[in-house]
Structure prediction request, 928 residues.
Amino acid sequence: MAKKRVVSTTINGNQTEFLCEPRQTLLEVLRDTLNLTGAKEGCSNGNCGACTVLVDGRPVDSCLVLAVEIEGADLETIEGVACSEALHPVQQCYLENAALQCGICTPGFIMSTKALLDENSSPSEDDIRFYLAGNLCRCTGYDKIVRAVQDSAELMASNGIDGVQIDR
Amino acid sequence: MATADVDTAQTNGNGKYKVIGTRPIRHDGVDKVTGRALYGADVKLSGMLHAAMLRSPHAHANIKSIDTSKAEALPGVRAVVTNADLPEVGDRIAELGEGAVNLRHLSCNVLAGPKVLYKGHAIAAVAAENIHIAKEAVGLIDVEYELLPPVLDVREAMEDSAPILNDDVRTDTMGELGNTPTNIAAHFRYEKGDIEKGFAEAKVVVEREFDTATVHQGYIEPHNATALWNKDGHITVWTSTQGTFSVRQQVAELVNVPLSKVKVIPMEIGGGFGGKISVYLQPVAALLSKKSGQAVKLIMDRSAVFEATGPTPGSYIRVKMGVDAGGKITAAEAYLAYEAGGYPGSPINPGCMCIFACYDVPNGKIDGFDVCVNKPRTNAYRAPGATNAAFAAETVIDEICDELGICPVEFRLNNASKEGTRRVDGVEYPVIGMADTVEAIKSSAHWQSNLEGPNRGRGVASGFWFNCGLKSAATATVNADGSVSLIEGSTDIGGSRASLAMQLAETLGIAAEDVNPAVVDTDSVGYTDVTGGSRVTFATGIAAYEAGMDIRRQMIARAAEIWDVDADQVRYEDGTIIGPESSYTFKELAELVIKTGDPVTGRGASSAANQGGAFGTHCVDVEVDPDLGKVKILRYTIAQDCGTAIHPSYVEGQMQGGAVQGIGWALNEEYFYGDDGSMHNASYLDYRIPTCYDVPMIETIIVEVPDPEHPFGVRGVGEVPIVPPPAAIANAINNAIGVQMTELPMSPPRVVHEILKKNS
Ligand code: FES
Ligand code: FES
Prediction:
């Protein structure tokens, strides 16, 4: 077995160092070493998007990235999306639109939605469907997810990314 | 305790509800959008080992020997198990709430022996310090196989010359057993009226044959199980499942311990659709834990999910239908053969009962066959058996409509089953909403709109599913701040915490947000059947309602005590407890509860209530690319009888999700097999479920014909919407390009093939 490596990175704004084997994927390290289990494993080969995280702002399937590759990168996971006080507008809009049923795809969709809206603040329905085609959802039929993204874009256009306090 | 008349729940005026029909944020929502919700794969226990499974590379073979010695010798390996570690369970049938199972077959499916019956069949499992060592060890296990020819097609498997999969299987013909080994495990037959006379009365008779491919539920979360076999003999299982009590029973039976020794803790479940009821990993993790003395976690990979868990059957179906000059069905006949996979148990019987269920068929005959083939053992998938059947019946109807020049919507209205209609299998309907769903489509903006352009067409189809009742239990406790905790055992697969909390809130006249629902383990709530059969909002809903009524009785009694009046002078109205001289809000009395006597805990259960069945009618516009055969969905509308929609957003979501699964089934999903019986597309990329780029918005019309069996009129919603899509899309393709598709999926090569056939 190859020797373990130290990797330094920023995760959700915090400077982080971890040890990993060269063969370990970023997803494995996030989930098993760093206890960030919000990224889900649906396929482990880049087909489902459940493991989506943002690396330097770009959405990537963390099951396809080796953990050693993120040395020096700025990483954002679902755990870092809400601020301590409130949900992010995207999270809020997913909830209000009932855009999740089982919820296993939701962290990945929210990360991809965030990346989409960072790139394009007023996407058309077609833009949304094209951008999110790498995230699979088997429960919702996507209708309410697309609406949640449309609402997120509107809410962020009027409120910025200020979260909305929710009553729960 | 004094009792008072609280037979009916108080609602806010004439049949209008205060909570039901609103769209609150689901109670588990924040956890699920922040990544905090814990699913099966997220379990972590101290000293936990990780396990991997060896699976058969062959579709049909005898296992001559298994040598695990090299695997056991690998440093870091703690335990290895094979079928030899499973106790002999004998030929017993276990009733699992939503269907019976032969325990020996279940046991051999969990760890194969003495044969492997499909590629991917589990053979041995290794627990090790980490998953990489476990996987390495799996590669060190030597298995000697004697290869046998596989049989993959249902009709070939029925032939006398076919290789036999299970030498203990005899054909069960309505209770009578045959006496030679066969792949045909069961033959069902239903008859009604005089079929010959019926066909003689018909003006048009159409007979067609259909083939449908094996398809998978495709839930995004793979199967998982973590087990701890404790030194005191107690087994705890953490798993995502549709039925904790069903897992408890299956594990107890397969590892041969009393039920009371097994506790199942439900993790959040990442989709199931019927596929997470049967056990695969749970007993294996338990055995590995017993051998190693440590907790063991076992997770499937995606290809194993496709190759080795229960898809829904491929099928061969023949339908013959006769209709008279007035457009009335005079006779209908069907022959259905479903692939059970390696072991018996396809949903052939529901397929038979559903095939003509939407219509009043005066003379009918249905034969159904359950047939073993070298594919994974099939399991329930959303309205199991009904979609294949509807594809056949509903497209034959459209062909007849074409010949007679009748509008397909009018035909469906004219022949719709209604209260009192007797199905071919003998069941007489209570109040149902079949015709109402067709009416809703007829008056929809979609049906009223014009569809123009070349190669475009519109199709409709209807579908039926029984929905079941079964057993549920719930308790609810009143907290001092006026909130109520709801404790239930139905794992929440798509928002049922909310739909149950809302029913309790409605019953008590409090806000949905003031109910805290919790799904708990098998030691912490009364027996509850699976989350399946579209039963949770119905049956666990009744349990929640009953628990609420129990609380109301106790609250009335408590108020009477405080006021020193007779309980019958106190009434409960819209969240207020009203006495002769004063009243309490629920919250005020809740605060007094602890100070004045026993805590208030309500209990409720449901077992007797059964659902009346539900119907849906779908309308779809498609555009067919005549060169590529690709079918694009332009517009899609669903009308479905939902009884009473508790949380309309999640009701719509069920309809939309079911329809999109049906669209995938219709257009591209299939198990693609080589002649050697290996699946060639066991990945999401190659199996290809619909992405959001493949489908449009799905319009929904909620039709509400309340089910009198439920206090609020709930009908299950989850399953019906997968039934009509393949048929509706086939009818739309025919309308677009004049080609009648009889095979699923209607993938580009098949559509092009039919187009070329028509043109030559
Ligand atoms: S788990 Fe990474 S894409 Fe599916
Ligand atoms: S909500 Fe279940 S997969 Fe998307």
In short: Chain A has a mean pLDDT of 94. Chain A has five helices and five strands.
